[in-house]
UniProtKB/TrEMBL annotation:
Domain Pilus assembly protein C-terminal: 82-174
InterPro entries: Pilus_assem_C
Pfam families: CooC_C
Superkingdom of origin organism: Bacteria
Name this protein carries in UniProt: Pilus assembly protein C-terminal domain-containing protein
Organism: Serratia fonticola
Length: 178
């Protein structure tokens, strides 16, 4: 048997080990003081007992940010008891905004659907789309559909510029997918 004082605080162990290193995230639980955790690390957050465990996570931004993440948390759905510790797992998907122009056989592809990007090209083949990716994934090609024809559009690094989380593509040559 152990004797000791039961502290009048509880704690959350924040696990951000699956998030990208070098990125910072702030976590708080309802009205508690927040804590900053770096991707790839764990930290703790003190909370008052008898509060619902309902952590909220946000990405912290700086001048060097080139990726935006949709964050979610997984934790026990319970009320914190004094002296207890609860685990919170941070999870994320990457939100990649892409702008560009698609071509086929040297001509723009107007009114084509950009699959997975929630976008349609305009009359000159320009589009703006939002892709949801796994945090360690990179967009390597576009899939385009027009009039029942499916196109595969590989992305070439020399035609891509990444600025503040927006991928700008100079031009993408698409080929009919067989």
């Amino acid at each position: 048997m152990a004797w000791g004082k039961t502290d009048n605080t509880s704690a959350l162990i924040i696990d951000a080990t699956e998030l990208p290193r070098g990125q910072y995230f702030e976590i708080n639980n309802r009205d508690s003081q927040g804590v900053v955790v770096m991707g790839g690390k764990k930290t703790t957050l003190n909370i008052q007992p008898y509060r619902k465990i309902l952590p909220i996570a946000e990405q912290l931004f700086n001048d060097e940010i080139n990726q935006f993440y949709n964050l979610s948390t997984r934790s026990a759905s319970t009320w914190a008891l004094p002296g207890q510790v609860y685990n919170v797992k941070l999870m994320a998907t990457k939100n990649q905004t892409v702008t560009g122009r698609v071509y086929s056989k040297g001509y723009p592809l107007p009114n084509a659907r950009i699959v997975g990007g929630n976008a349609i090209t305009d009359s000159e083949g320009y589009f703006v789309g939002d892709f949801i990716l796994n945090i360690h994934s990179q967009l390597g090609s576009l899939k385009v559909e027009k009039d029942g024809i499916k196109y595969q559009c590989p992305l070439q690094n020399e035609n891509i510029k990444l600025t503040h989380g927006v991928m700008q593509i100079r031009e993408v040559q698409c080929e009919v997918k067989s």
